Amino acid sequence: MPDMKQVFSSEIRRIAHREIKAVLKPVIAQNVELKKRLNAMEREIKEMQKQFPAPELPPVDKQNNDEVSVPAKIPRITKERILALRKKLNLSQGEFAKLLGVASGTICHWEIGKNSPRLELKIRIAEVRDMKPSAIKALMLEKGILCADVAEPNEPEPVAEETTEEETVESEGTFDKTAFFEFRKKNNLSQGKIAALLGVFYSSIRRWETGEGLPREPQKAKIEALLALTPEQLAERLDNLPLPKRPHAEVSGKARK
After folding, report:
1. Which residue blocks in the chain are alpha helix, DSSP H?
2. Distance (Å, rounded) from C-alpha 157 to C-alpha 204?
3. What is the predicted pLDDT for the residue at 247?
């Protein structure tokens, strides 16, 4: 008497093989057809290359090319200088990265010394370092770091203004950052909106609220006038406030709440 287990196993393998073959048959046929089409396309490309040969490019003078692309003096850019430049411009790592056209994590790696910028980026950093304040402001507007409706055209934000000890003491005595922060929160204002009301950079609002910086005398007068507004007057000022061209300041202001 035949072994039933062996018979069943053999029959199952036969049926499975038949089913698999039935399933794979159209796939195999499709694969063969695709190979035929690919070979035909390769032949057509070769014929087109014969009919329309690629133009010959003039030889590149490597010596002259190197003289154009590489400056005579490579700027010395260290992690300390990168950090000092960013602090001087009063920018976050994300904003500084946007200004240079790199990722924000790249700025962090540069500042901690994990890696250093490539030659073209060193040249770019040196260009930004040597720019005039007006040129830096124009670049920030172009990159969307600064909204045109936020900054006053006749009173640009100071980049690296030195403050005397007497000015610092006077500012600390007359500016209450807690009251300023509570006013903004009470009226549900973002840092971008209150910056537009005062005509300053939104990053200045962040520095004032965290104590990293202090407003100057003209700015303190505007802050006092703003805090004295009634809810109706504030609503009217907000209704007449022009919308920023780009939402970067608004988004950054919400992220820092």
Report:
1. 4-51, 62-69, 79-89, 93-100, 104-112, 119-129, 133-143, 165-174, 177-186, 191-198, 202-210, 217-227, 231-239, 248-255
2. 8
3. 41
User: Could you read off the pLDDT of 202-227 as tens digits, one per residue?
Assistant: 788 888 888 888 888 888 888 888 88
Are the beta carbons of 147 and 248 closer than 8 angstroms?
yes
pTM of the complete model: 0.35
Instruction: Kindly tell me if the per-residue pLDDT of 131 is higher than 90.
Output: no
Quote the tokens at residue 254: 């919400």
- pLDDT surpassing 80 at residue 252: no
d(CA 149, CA 135) in angstroms, rounded, equals 17
Contact 112, 158 (CB under 8 A): no
- By C-alpha distance, which of 233, 228, 223 is closest to 176? 223
| 133, two tokens | 């304040």
| 240 phi, psi to nearest 5 deg | -90, 0
Whether the per-residue pLDDT at 231 is higher than 50: the answer is yes
155 bridge partner residues: 152
Distances, alpha carbon 40 to alpha carbons 32, 35, 36, 43, 51, in Å: 13, 9, 6, 5, 17
195 to each of 89, 150, 151, 184, 239, how far by Cα in Å? 17, 6, 8, 11, 15
pLDDT tens-digit readout, 54-98? 666 566 554 444 444 556 677 888 989 998 898 888 888 888 888
Separation of alpha carbons 248 and 145, rounded Å: 7
